[in-house]
Amino acid sequence: MSRDNIVSRSVAEPSTRKRRVMVGAIGACVHNLGVAPELEWSDFLVERIRQVRERENRPIIRAHIGIAAETIDPTVEAIEKLADAGALEIVSLAPDQPSQEMLAKFIRGEEDPDKYLRGQGGAPIRTIEDLKRLKAATQRGNFPMTRIYTGTDELVSLANLYEKYLNMCFPAVPIFSAPRTGDGNLVLADASGNLAAFEVGHRACGIVEAPAGWVAATNHFVTPEMEAYYVPEGQRHLRGSSRRRRAVVEEALHAARGQIDVVWARQLMARHGGPLDALCRHKNLERGRVTISTSIFLPADRQLLFCHGQPCQAEYHRISVAD
Q1: 3-state SS of 62-88?
Q2: Which residue from 87, 115, 225, 270 has the least number of CB within 10 angstroms?
Q3: pTM score > 0.85 for this model?
Q4: Which stretches in the chain have pLDDT values below 70?
């Protein structure tokens, strides 16, 4: 168990929980002045810090808990005991390794949880119902807040799940150790024709130059500096998609050299195909993932064409970015 002064920023209205509090140094202790007025404990970090400082003049307390077992039952029971005792303000959930890597896929039905050992270093969280039970275990005693390891894959998907079902008060992101999925690739261009792709990592980066006058980037790394950091994501049968889509774009650019214009670019981005090589993607190819927008930049004209939706059917809007 540790004591921490935790600084954060809340942009939401605090939700509250009611509890009769005994004034004391840690949680529910009797003080010689008697029982304090009923207090509504906040489930948001900054407000909770303020409440504890005003009433007990101490930092908030958090502790990691995630009992290695076949089910989450021991973890749920332990959280209930901690909440009833008023022992801490933050329950810091520790999922097992399959949870950290595969939870989003378990929930979408893309991976079978029964294929993985349970309790490898933490609580075996496998379903939305598990998340709901863990949060419900805090809704008693002094109503401690909840946080959880952010995970090692599909961080955005997991963050959405944790925000919805745990009201996660702050995350723990492995930004210095987690390999990247490749989603940080940037294509840079200026009005004079300079062009490159920049592969972004936590401790390394790579640059793909454009000696032929064009460059392509999808969702994986190709430079020697970054190749080792790439981790495929998504459904297993689609894990070659990033490389195949890059090959499609490179072939098209090579074939159209000297003839590339806006009409050509729109046709390319609206290109359909199979599960691996389609550029304009629809639900029939990959569950839960579709093309949501397309941008065509015209650096020399200081303009961009933006399509909100799938480029095979949605309208492009011209936007000026001139000074």
Answers
A1: EEEECCCCCCCHHHHHHHHHHHHHCCC
A2: 115
A3: no
A4: 1-38, 171-184, 202, 231-238, 287-288, 323
